[in-house]
Amino acid sequence: MKTIKGPALFLAQFAGDEAPFNSWDSITKWAADCGYIGVQVPSWDGRLIDLAKAAESKDYCDTFKGVAAENGVAVTELSTHLQGQLVAVHPAYDTAFDGFAAPEVRGNPKARQEWAVDQVKKALTASKNMGLTAHASFSGALAWPFIYPWPQRPAGLIETAFDELARRWKPILDHADECGVNVCYEIHPGEDLHDGVTFEMFLERVNNHPRAMMLYDPSHYVLQCLDYLDNIDIYAERIGMFHVKDAEFNPTGRQGVYSGYQPWVDRAGRFRSLGDGQCDFGAIFSKMAAIDFDGWAVVEWECCLKHPEDGAREGAQFVKEHIIRVTEKAFDDFADGGTDEAGNRKMLGI
Known about the structure:
Layout: E1 5-10, H1 24-34, E2 38-42, H2 51-56, H3 58-70, E3 74-80, H4 81-85, H5 94-98, H6 109-129, E4 134-137, H7 157-179, E5 182-186, H8 196-205, E6 212-216, H9 218-222, H10 228-234, E7 239-244, E8 246-249, E9 269-272, H11 281-290, E10 296-299, H12 308-322, H13 341-348
Parallel strand pairs: 1-2, 1-10, 2-3, 3-4, 4-5, 5-6, 6-7, 7-10
Antiparallel strand pairs: 8-9
Helix pairs in contact: 6-7, 7-8, 10-11
């Protein structure tokens, strides 16, 4: 068995214009001070990384990793959540997602999509240059406006959407294969890949591409009332990344999964800081150890109540306490009878 690495922290929710969150040097020092030994990097944030340079120059990547190492943390993965979202956007969300793109392609869905594909490919090349083997992203969504089957969906609508989604991602996955990097899709509401069934629909259309993997985050499953422990057993071979994030679901007589358009603090389903929600992380870490997951346990702080810096510091300690250092021997080795094949046959009477 293998021991999970960590704790690591996803920096997307912390990067900002004020110190220590406004530069690569200072934010990695801060993360280490919080107790982290790894950081996951949002590739779209120019305050932290120059993605174009990272894709072009291994020297830049070596320096980038060197700064982090000097400050006490490793680079665990790069993320293209925002760019991946733009690989597939339904027109209903054009305005909402335009801000994710570079200014020169905003208002032009075709140019924006081409830019997004190039961005994800650049991030995969940069991952290769950094010696990384896993990459985090979103799938984007063409069918999400039709998530609920009313009005009745016309025959073939969802199939066509997934055919197109696969067509757009297949060249990216092929590039990932050339780079030796897995694309780990965060299974997330708002994406066409939002549960196991939709992941399988996509996987079938990309011919079970070996680089199409999952980013496992139990919080999104709690809010969907999905069995997040069974999910680990089902998709063990496809889980390539792990976000450690907590959530709670408390339905009432007034609201349930959809939560009546309420803000996060008033929703039945809410993201919480680690230990404040309902995820059974003891069981989750046990299952991750049992499936030999040897990637990083990456804290993604999202909470509608707690201050992010408190959530980050508490999260580092929480993960440290949950990582299982796996055993190298069986607990009953002391009772080993030391038999061999001949002895086994004798015991069986054959």
